[in-house]
Amino acid sequence: MLVVLCKGSLFGDDAQEAVDSLFSLRKSTSSPIALTLSSLDKGCTVLQLNSSTCTRMTTSVPTSQSISLHGGSIGRQPEASPATGSTSQYGKNSFEAGSSSRGKEMSRLVLNPIKNHKPESYEDMNLDISSMLLSSLEMHLPSYMLGASRNNKASYMRGILQDYVPPALRYRDQKQKEYREKIMSNYQPLHQELYTIDPVAFFVPAFLKAIKDNTEQSFRSIMSEPAPGIFTFEMLQPRFCELLITEVEHFEKWADRTKLHVMRPNTMNQYGAVLDDFGLQTMLKKLMEDFISPLSKVFYAEVGGSTLDSHHGFIVEYGSHRDVDMEFHVDDSEVTLNVCLGRQFSGGELYFRGMRCDKHLNTMGHSEEIFDYSHVPGCAVLHHGRHRHGARATIAGHRVNLLLWCRRAPQGA
Ligand SMILES: O=C(O)CCC(=O)C(=O)O
Ligand SMILES: [Fe+2]
């Protein structure tokens, strides 16, 4: 039995690769594969197969959506050559995706992905299976299912996947769902005005005008590009920054009072909070769609910047009794927005060391790739999620940043 652990939620190309890997393995073995598969939106994804071939590797970070390049914990490892093999015993291009003990009519998936099919986004459905995984799996639906409603496709695929979720992980999925539900039904926001975008109150006028004009020239008029693919610009109103910081403090105090253990943005953080967990999801979705996508369409089209369709929004906090620094890593995003909210601090500079493909994440940097940036409250840094970076120690004071990891679901070819 081979266990493949993909830590961090599967998304984008990773989700597609994981699904492809399952199918490659299925092709390469003569006996049916018993697979166990589960995914949490911010947890780990486990693919468990009784095969002797592995095409996915493990990250050593339990729930991080980032990949540490320090200390030997390396994610997104090179893949083995794709396995080849015969078509399924269940007929050309299909195989039985469920266990025979289910005692109900078999749901089927097709072996080869339908490359020209554009999968739907399942993000807003709040399912207990990763929406990215569903989008990837949709490319393997039998043709009669492709035209079904999104609800029907989701429940068909969920039906297949749910049977394989080990009880422990099903429990974790459930816990995470309950966490959000508990917050949503009991937490009283401090600043209701943060929960709906008010452009004039949120953004500085020059940023708003540039987005409204919506041309590369208007964007470049407010942005600097101090290193290739890294953009810095003034973005948020000081009052908005302060309201967001106090909202997070209010949430944490409430969580403390109600003995709710706050789930951190990822395992690289001991502090901070996921904004999507306490009701800011709709606001952040709009922030991405109306204010970041116009920029990413122009500057990050080659990594899916034109079709961003999901996000992970969170706050990081540094200083005494908080996180100190952030080790060298790449983000689990296509495009990352990082805005300093305040307050007074010294240190905490971001350092960038160039982009790498998955196979060369740990290779040396070149001098021309070195770029260091000192955070300024209200100012944003926009970069490729795969641009290697870290944050130096905040040596005095208290630094709070807003992070929006913008993502794109896998697209049909
Ligand atoms: O602290 C910072 O500014 C960087 C944070 C970061 O890179 C991350 O959370 O992914
Ligand atoms: Fe990062």
CATH homologous superfamily grouping of the largest domain: q2cbj1_9rhob like domain
Tally the beta strands.
Answer: 18
Q: Summarize the amount of helix as a percent range.
A: 25-40%
- Which shape, going by the Cα principal axes? globular
If you average the pLDDT, what whole number results? 77
Oligomer: single chain
GO molecular function, one term: iron ion binding
Domain Fe2OG dioxygenase: 309-408
Keywords: Dioxygenase, Iron, Metal-binding, Oxidoreductase, Vitamin C
InterPro entries: Oxoglu/Fe-dep_dioxygenase_dom, Pro_4_hyd_alph
Provide a compact summary of the structure.
The chain has 413 residues and is α+β, with helices and mostly antiparallel strands. The chain has helices at residues 12-28, 131-138, 143-146, 150-162, 167-186, 199-202, 205-213, 216-222, 238-257, 281-299; strands at 2-6, 35-38, 45-49, 67-68, 94-96, 108-110, 224-227, 230-234, 273-274, 310-319, 326-330, 335-342, 345-347, 350-355, 370-373, 379-384, 387-391, 394-407. It folds into two domains: 2-174, no CATH class; 187-407, q2cbj1_9rhob like domain (Jelly Rolls).
